[in-house]
Amino acid sequence: DAVTLEQRFQSKVDADERIEPKDWMPDAYRQTLIRQISQHAHSEIVGMLPEGNWITRAPSLRRKAVLIAKVQDEGGHGMYLYSAAETLGISRDELIEQLLAGTAKYSSIFNYPTPTWADVGAIGWLVDGAAIMNQIPICRCSYGPYARAMVRICKEESFHQRQGFEIMMTLARGTAEQKRMAQDALNRWWWPSLMMFGPNDATSKHTAQSMRWKIKRFTNDELRQKFIDITVPQAEYLGLKVPDPDLRWDEQTQHYIHGPIDWKEFEDVLKGNGPCNRERLETRRRAHDEGRWVREAALAYAEKQRARDTQ
Ligand code: 3HC
């Protein structure tokens, strides 16, 4: 009966066994994974927009080639993740419809503008840095397809983070104006990057349950702290100042203590009132409409293939 099914499921999770698509799982576990994996996929796809904005204006052919490769990777990450979500019994069309209708979330971080080239560096360094911090533990999450998708994604993320840090290093060691651009980008991306990890554990709706199901291996605050502890020394190495007057190293706990996060800003962005929310969704809706003929042609071609193969 349901109780033993649930108990058997939980003891598999407790024993660090993988749950696969054909295994029995509580509906709430399935729904949580559909929610998280699809929003993760939406983040990858919408995440192509802020950086894509700089492909035609990269300062050198090398930077342009690296940025094209990175943005292309993000699209691929979106595809892996949509495929992982489909194993839970929801169609790609439904998932994309939820994004375009505004009923599904994507990471708040992609609702911020990229006014200068230094933003491409700050995104690689901070946003992909935070994404790596969040994604490495998901390689060990209890749901097989999600964990396996993460292994490939994390390998590519480290390239994303390195190329961003290299851009920041070039600017920080460049002219006074370039160093000012790098500092300005750090000032604008620092706090929104901390918000990527989600609300504090005390107010997080899902963290406790996601920890029990081993969808999460660390809580939001634990990952955020790891990110801060690793990233502050990198900023110092660049000769840049983290825009947090309360930031200080605590010898006792061996962690940085940081200032308060503006959760009002976070809630506003989640409600759709961030600097670029409307523009991002409009761009996705336009791309979806303009790409309709491609989807129709691909389906017609597949139909012809099928008809020919069955003759
Ligand atoms: N942006 C948007 N929504 C967020 C958010 C953020 N930064 N942080 C939390 N939320 C939402 C949650 O989705 C949830 O809303 P919902 O119930 O409608 O889905 C609500 O706020 C409560 O937050 P919780 O912490 O309780 O929710 P979760 O347990 O889902 O934790 C999370 C949030 C840590 C983002 C988790 O969903 C997660 O780890 N997701 C996978 C990682 C991911 O999506 N990363 C995006 C990074 S960007 C990226 O990958 C591209 C990179 O390559 C550049």
Automatic annotation (TrEMBL):
E.C. number: 1.14.13.149
InterPro entries assigned: Aromatic_CoA_ox/epox, Ferritin-like, Ferritin-like_SF, PaaA, PaaA_PaaC
Gene3D superfamilies: 1.20.1260.10
SUPFAM superfamilies: Ferritin-like
Keyword NAD (UniProt): no
GO molecular function list: phenylacetyl-CoA 1,2-epoxidase activity
Enzyme class label: oxidoreductase
Key words of the record: Oxidoreductase
Protein name: 1,2-phenylacetyl-CoA epoxidase subunit A
Species of the source: Steroidobacter gossypii
